[in-house]
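Purpose: get a first structural picture of the assembly so the mutagenesis plan has something to point at.
Setup: two entries, given in the order below. No constraints added.
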Amino acid sequence: MPSDSPPFLEAERITKSFPGVKALVEVSLTVGQGESVAIIGENGAGKSTLMKILAGIQPPDGGMIKVNGELVELRGVKDAMRLGIALIHQELNLCDNLTVGGNIFLGREPRVCGFISHREIRKQSVDVLRQVGLSLSPETPLAELSIGQQQLVEIAKALSCNARLLIMDEPTSSLSSREVEALFTVIQSLRAKGVSILYISHRLGEVRRVSDRVVALRDGQNSGELPHQEITHENMVRLMVGRDLSQFYAHVCHPPGELVLQAAGLRTPTHPEESLDFELRRGEIVGLSGLVGAGRTELLNTLFGIAPAEQGEIEIAGQACRIRSPRDAIAHGVFLVPEDRKLQGLVLDMDVRENISLPALAGMSRMALVDGRRERSLALEMIDRMRVKTPGPAQVIRYLSGGNQQKVVIAKWLAMKPKVLLLDEPTRGIDIGAKHEIYELMESLAKQGVAILFVSSELEEILGMADRALVMHEGRLAGCLSRDQLSEEAVMNLATGGPLQAEQVQESKG
Amino acid sequence: MLKNIVLGMLLIAIFLLTRQMEPLFASQSSIGTMLRWTGLYGIMTIGAAFVIISGGIDLSIGSMIALIGAQFGILILEYNMNPYLAMVVVLTMAALIGLIYGLLITKLKLQPFVVTLCGLLVLRSIARYLTGDDMVSGFVVSDSGESLKYLTASKLWGLPLPLWMLGGVALVAGVALNRTVFGRYLKALGNNEQAARYSGIQTDNVTIAAYIICSFLAGVTGILFAIDLGSVAPNTTGTFFELYAIAAAVLGGCSLRGGVGSIVGVLIGTAILRMLYQAIETLRFAELEGTVIGVVILIGVIFDEIVRRVVANRRTKREMPIAPTETG
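Result (structure tokens, whole complex):
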């Protein structure tokens, strides 16, 4: 890389705010020609927002962006594309009713006399497909491709627009390990041609492999950079979390109490071929780990009656129960803090008070009339206990930050004496301070005798918070690890379940 | 609240403006007609509002009015049924139709638009079949000379009886919507069905109840219109009424996205539409009726959208200083 030419992209002091959150505060970033830079940071650190700004999807509130040393303004995706910046989304943006070639040229089809020239599409597609290592016909319907191949088509699409910088947001999150290898090979060959890469991933092992440099974000601010030789797991975690992990998690071991929930031969509707047996004890915090799609959320949904079990028995406090709906689960003291708080956890246009009281409302009404005073005092009590930052109980939930919204979701259930609390990704997308408070809350609930089962995709969280961990793989319980057996390798080993993935574990150990 | 005040001012403005152009508009009979019709239309609009707040829609209100009105007449004329018993029978029928809608929408997960669109077609054609496509009339006054006409034509303390009925329905509806657990569930469901379900609310039952209420109130309106007009023409009575009801509800602040709406707003919305209608009649340019009403609703919705954005923007700016903080 010639050092006298300006870097391909320079972003300086980018600032962006959303209702209730400062997503980015004066974040700066440079990417050289052909350089591969990884952005790391926890959920909610501002990575995705930064990417969206660089791709022209959202305008920044402040700061400036230079491309090839020239100040530019990105008013839309078109502007960014013209400058050679392309974003490969986490969720692919392809039409699976079209062919591969049709997708590559979607929106800018070559035309002859106003009609689409399929011959031209074919000719030009073959070339970009070769560049991403795909040897298939542009006529292939996209629906026939695997997710990994579709991802490569998306990259081919970017290349056909002469992209000079590819921004990849969690590109490997749904790929098999062989597809990941194929992707990395493509990335290497693109870099050799001078294409720059901006790579976002939670998988630190991958980050180490693909990037020349690591830029870390924390709470919407730059929290440090690592040159290639300093990219280690420990360094990255330190920059992301800003403290030692042992201080961060509030965990103390609990002596498990008597049995609260026992599942025998449980079959979920998503994986009816697997029979699940497990138990939860009073005062115990159990982590539920596994890869995306392993059936963790589905298991919680079955316990909560959202997707009732096909077969099997659930005993709660020694009593056999049929859980056919959330109402049944709630009646037995089993509560769920769902995965997507905006979609499942909250009624966004209602206020804090109405959200907190929603599940408890029927119990505190008189002759079908809502008891406004009791409702309000419950809300005030919960706001105080959960330390929800809100101007008052009448604040519309939509305007609270992610962490405070999540506290409200949990507060909904605390009013009703939980026996078993199921938490699905309880700290996803919330800032570090609120995260810490949620860990403390889990601790104090466990101390009061609540059995907690929580799903987390962040291994550190499982390692930091769980008394023991259940690990799922393709719908089955691959194993249970006690506190002394818990390690990143052990969890990954069970979660991936095959010898092929064992190498990966080795590599990520670093 | 603010919205209702603005709507109220709009109502007064239309009144004063039209009176300026045509003093007859403020005559006692003209005002009486407006109030009576507001009463009749308002009852079905409140029903429509419940469905709209639940996040659904009912396109079959007009057909329901025709079917219930016709069946009411037939029961009296052909079966010699006591008119009050006939009312009970046809209202039960209306509620059952609402129950069927609700079951189709919740248990089979069909779209409300499709289900009630089919209702619109089916109910109207049943009305025509039952009547042999002939006008039904002569059921208001019985052989012994008793007349039902008082229900829509008489006055109580100077106000038309239908307006009192609307007042009663609105009071019950207002309490149900704002003070009961059901009302809270309905709003939660309309705003976010999943979150409501994840909170243990039996959302199916709440949805079904909304359609029963809507169909029941459409049935009530059907009976009242049959009595007021003295006849039911199965192929024309009630046509487009569902659209008037939806229009009035939307003008009154109900969002078709669900979760939002107030009974007071619905009342003012209905009153504005009826007054506009009357004003157009009085000023004699009936061909432009659709234009005027359509434009007024559009302006109302645009105004509402602008206010919403300004409020949201101001809120964002004001609450910005909550930066993420570190603890631990």
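Chain B is about 75% helix and 0% strand.
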